[in-house]
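**User:** Here is a favour to ask of a fellow structure person. Please take any protein you like and set down a full record of it. No explanation is needed for now; the record alone will do.

**Assistant:**
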Amino acid sequence: MKKKRVVDIVEEIALPFLDKNNLELVDVEFVKEGQHRYLRVYLDKENGVSLDDCQLVSEYLNEKLDELDPIEENYFLEVSSPGIERQLKKEKDFEKYKGRLVEARLYHTLNGEKIIKGKLMGLKDNKVIINREEKGEVEIARDKVALVKLSINFD
């Protein structure tokens, strides 16, 4: 039998609890940084995530993960909001934030640009569509995009 990935196990544990508490699971990461491992859980909800929300989920996950003990290594658990410039990863993110200002960072230049900013028009046929007012609409294959995140315009 194939061993489950840590992020999949954490998602399985967290989702019913988050649903019950009207919270959305944005992402789970299990990464090594330096000598340490970090289990990061990112949450969201309609009017923003509070410190109390993060504490509630952190306590729940600590208890469940201690009980089940699915992670062999030592790690630090971090529960937080993805922030106002959150990264868009899932298809539903591209639908939810359609019409919002985004920044796409590309692996390689496209028409001399490696960073493309504009209004997110959505995701179609696995292409990110961004409308740049003065330069028009651009479609970028998703595998050519390193990341897409919400962007704040301070003009």
About this structure: The mean pLDDT is 91. The first strand starts at residue 24 and ends at 33. The longest helix spans residues 51-68.
